[in-house]
């Protein structure tokens, strides 16, 4: 692709302007939408990529006969056959593509030519270079934030005036047949990966690893993936309003002591392994962390509700099934089966019998509070953390009016601090992390503390 570095810089600065001499927007279904014209790809102030499209020709009847005030495409967003596609040719002759977006055509735009703004979540370029056919895989992405990955390499930069600067700003992580380099260039984070890997799996693992350990929400605005001879370059929509925002990070970015940085780097390899072997565990941890991160950018009440539910979600998806498996009471299960058989023979109304059976079936079930009690007994979490979660969850589930004063705010902050520590303990246990973590306490600096490692889940 011609000028890829300039396009990446333009995305970084938020001033992308890519002129397209021809643009086609279409559906692949019978009688689907088909628009032809030209336009300019840009990025607006909030980080959204959009096409300022001049439609010259409409090749489908539905788009030229809008019956209401406007018509939306696709009509049914859950019907994959109605998916929209975009193909465009730039001034330099490159082909760019986009998929899975939507648009609305107004009644005032029934006849071409007319102008449309088409908002896109990403555009991409595909290049087939036979010189790379025998090389290993390659991936690159960058975003604007402050990474807290421990650095282990120094870089030297020279200016045209002969001046040199030395920065200890690179983290090199190697595992199996993969080498990952994370470079912090004045809050412009550049990530390069070389080796043998499945790109989508590693990409998500890297985003979670960097985000979780740094307390940030990585939003890559460019992504390059090369597999064999094919290189695909993506430019992505972001939300500029999330830049510079963070939540308390659970571990330190120290470069020595307490097993660092090795135990820090091992988290990434563990995430990739868990994602490959048990995707539910990875996806649950990742999605719950994302919810918690976003809730911390909102009001306290939203953070309280989300944090309490996130702990419950992790327990339901990951820990309770394992605790059920390892603590199964065979005698109780036999007794339940016998009793259910006896209830089924009773001479009573069917709905009454079903109510009794449902009640017996719940005997011995592990609910969230019981699961946390079991984890306290195992030594993974503290009783004070379980108590804080219970109070936090109850206050969110059964809200009552209370005065917003210093005492109530202090109590909320104490519950949030302890529950956040609990949440991080659960997340890191999913990935078998055996190292120090911060324990958050109200009106005090987080304390870095290493508890005895407790293996709750099967890590194979």
Task: Explain what this protein looks like in three dimensions.
By secondary structure, the chain is α+β, with helices and mostly antiparallel strands. It folds into 4 domains: 4-125, Roll (Pnp Oxidase, Chain A); 129-277, no CATH class; 282-324 and 367-449, no CATH class; 328-365. Helix content is 37%, strand content 27%. It contains 11 helices and 18 strands. It has helices at 4-13, 61-64, 199-214, 262-277, 279-295, 300-326, 330-344, 350-361, 368-378, 383-397, 406-430, and strands at 17-27, 34-43, 49-58, 70-73, 84-90, 95-99, 103-106, 114-120, 122-128, 137-144, 153-158, 164-175, 178-185, 188-195, 222-227, 230-236, 437-439, 447-449. The strands form 3 sheets. A 14-stranded antiparallel sheet has the order 8-3-2-1-5-6-9-16-15-10-14-13-12-11, sandwiched between helices. Helix 5 (279-295) packs antiparallel against helix 6. The two termini are 42 Å apart.
